[in-house]
Amino acid sequence: MSLLKITAIGLALFINSFGLSQKIAGVLDIKPGIEEGYTLFAPLNSNITYLIDNCGRIINTWESEFTPGNTTYLLPNGNLLRTKKLSNTIIDGGGGGGGIELFDWESNLLWSYELNNENLRLHHDVESLPNGNILMIVWELKYKDEAIEAGRDPALISSDEVIWSEQIIEIKPISTNSHEVVWKWSLWDHLIQDFDSDKEGFGIVSDHPELVNINYVNQGDISDWVHANSIDFNEALNQVVLSSPFFNEFWIIDHSTTTEEAASHSGGNFNKGGDLIYRWGNPLAYKRGTVEDQQLFGQHDVHWIDEMNKYEGSIILFNNNRGEKYSTVEIVTPSFDENSEYELVESSYGPIAPNFIYKANPAEIFHSRIMGGVQSLPNNNLLICSSLQGLIFEVTNESETVWIYKSPITANGIVGRNFEETNANFASDNNFRAIKYSKTYSAFDNKELTPLEPIEGEPWIPCNIITNTMEDPKLFTEVYPNPVKDRLYIETPDSEELLLVKLITTHGKIIRSAMGRKKILLNVSTVTSGLYVLQINNKLTKIIEIK
Fold first, then answer.
1. In the chain, how long is the greatest CA-to-CA distance?
2. Which domain holds residue 503?
3. Are 357 and 10 in contact (CB under 8 A)?
4. Three-state SS for 99?
5. Distance of CA 274 to the CA centre of its chain
6. Which H or E element spans position 139?
7. H/E element holding 382?
8. Cβ pair 406, 421 in contact under 8 A
9. Within a domain: residue 538?
10. How confident is the model over 83-118, as pLDDT tens digits?
11. Are the C-beta atoms of residues 275 and 266 closer than 8 Å to each other?
12. d(CA 463, CA 417)
């Protein structure tokens, strides 16, 4: 059943619609057309990071002393780059981290780094660069007098008398716990305001889209004013993209600058220093549009699409609240002028609207108000992490759902292993994101990849069989009717091959079998209703529903 064909009854029926009352966690649906690979995710309340195959079977795990804060990446050499969450009573916001760790494949800690004090705190996301350096998002606390001097309206300073700005720091890991800061960018160097002509940065906001209006506030927490939640690097362009869900925009910065140039308005490939060279999503933030022009609504996971994909060079994102009760996945292809610089189109940066939008049907069955992630896969499928729903699913270009995974990890344990659940409405622990890596990814070279059982325990027989037979040559076979109530027929009209057919429960028990040629009858009138596996000659398999 495709995600797009689910009725609006809700998520519980969405999950239950697959007919396996005993299968409420892990892989709930799998079809041909899925991208072959392994999926990485890190539950936010767990110290364990998981890598699973398409049947939900564990390929590898890494265990830390800390919960994530928030993202995790598998590097090309097989090491795991992982954020970690540390406590901080001063800068205490959603997505707070404070540190990062590097583990080898065997979960040995190789290197760690912390930046977590009363003035600076790592948060949300990091980005590993091809040269081994790491970009990090950092909250930078500014006190009331600093904010007012920069032109902040005092009415937009909360009772704690601070606001949090943003930095990007690039470090080079050295030995076990050492590092070198090799580049830094600070938003505080690129502000504009039209509130107080006697203060710094005074000017006409609409004349300077390259600068950020210090008095644009579009959400309730006016201390955490920007709340950057993702960062990505484009090596070919030598540029960084930063997402601000509270501005409902993403910003692109020139990374070819030195640290000194990044603090100025000149230098680098664009000769704009650390000013914004592109921004998209909400022209109202720089006073070149209206509320009707807004395209992004609390977005997450903004990043360039990798090479070897038909959307290569475009930017993909998870648009959390495109509608009041639904999310979308969107792809944006920036507009360039004849000088290969980002182009202003009708006073704001182009394009006017996304180049691609994925929306479920009905839209409301796919919604994560906060968090969430998306990945455009090599076969052009989309892997979507709907965080608050506890779901990771994969859809094709035709919007057919070919994989649905419900995280079995909850605050009370693991569904199907540590405690029992009688329905599919349990609350999974949130995954900030999920990433699928192709089986040919270099991280897996010379690694032990034998699947273990799924996180939730017992493997799901249909998934294992379907996965194993996707690449097998199939005998032309007709199986009807399906669903079936009394008699099931198996025919091979174009072959004299002897057939051995077995009807198997999802737990692997054979309950019916027969042998013959051309046409075989199975009497299933006394079989309990549910889903079963029909196996033909130990290879060709079909899922059979008995009513």
1. 93
2. 478-546
3. no
4. strand
5. 28
6. strand 134-143
7. strand 382-386
8. no
9. yes
10. 999 999 999 999 999 999 999 999 999 999 999 999
11. no
12. 19
Query: Strands, DSSP E only, in 245-282?
Result: 249-254, 276-280
> Peptide bond before 408: cis, by omega within 30 degrees of 0?
no
Nearest to 391 by CA among 327, 309, 311, 457: 327
Q: Taking the model in full, what pTM does it have?
A: 0.85
In a domain, residue 412? The reply is no
Q: Is residue 186 part of a domain?
A: no
CA of 148: how far to CAs of 90, 152, 160, 192, 228, in Å? 20, 5, 14, 12, 22
Q: How many structural domains comprise the chain? A: 1
In percent, the amount of the chain with pLDDT more than 90 equals 69
**Domain presence at residue 177:** no
What pLDDT does residue 8 have?
27
User: Which percentage of the chain shows pLDDT scores above 70?
Assistant: 90
Domain of 503, CATH number, reads 2.60.40.10
**pLDDT, tens only, 458-480:** 777 667 666 665 544 445 678 88
Q: Looking up tokens 């999974």, which residue turns up?
A: 428
pLDDT at 542 over 50: yes
3-state secondary structure of 97: coil
Q: Strand 191-192 and strand 212-213: pairing?
A: parallel
Q: Which helix (H) or strand (E) holds 42?
A: strand 37-43
- DSSP letter at 419 equals B
Q: Is the dihedral of CA 30, 36, 37, 42 positive or negative?
A: negative
Give the mean pLDDT of 47-76. 97
d(CA 302, CA 316): 6
